[in-house]
Design brief:
Layout (H helix, E strand, L loop, with lengths): L1 H37 L3 E2 L10 E3 L5 E3 L7 E7 L9 H12 L4 E8 L3 H11 L5 E4 L3 H5 L7 E5 L5 E6 L7 H12 L5
Parallel strand pairs: 4-5, 5-6
Antiparallel strand pairs: 1-8, 2-3, 4-7, 7-8
Helix pairs in contact: 1-5
Amino acid sequence: MMRRITFSLAVCGMVAVVAAGKAAIAAEQRAVADLVKSLNMSGYSSPMRAPDWSGRTADGKTLSLSALRGRVILINFWATWCQECRPEMPLFQRMHGEFATQGLSVIGINAREGTVAVRGYAKELGLTFPLVLDPEGKIGTTYGVIGLPTTFLIGRDGRAVALGVGPREWASAEARVLMEILLNEQLTR
């Protein structure tokens, strides 16, 4: 009899832990959705994986989305001639410096420009995060990019979290909290 009671209590305890975990995940998802809206970005109504891509960086390395699995990824499509892209770049650099060790990968994907232009721009702005070349626009086409800048947020589990066309307030408290929530998510999700 005592074993049955102990077992029943253990089962009730596990059910309570699972229920609390589900409630916490739901609250976290609502918080992410609210923060995405506050940044005037679009969230995804149903879970979907971000499309994989592979490309060469301006410094000659190969990089792919699949190689970054387990990290939160901010992908920004940009060009050196894009006036609205320029103010965001130092903010992305700051995020890269602050959150890279916590699992954030900031990736700039350049729209149809050459290595010399991209390297010069990076040097001028002091950018150290990876800048992927997309000379034929294949990655941009895969992501449906229609204007610059366009930014995508991808969770640790590879799911597409949000997208925004045009510049955003990346120095805002909302952007910071959003990054912190995404960085604190568990990969097992």
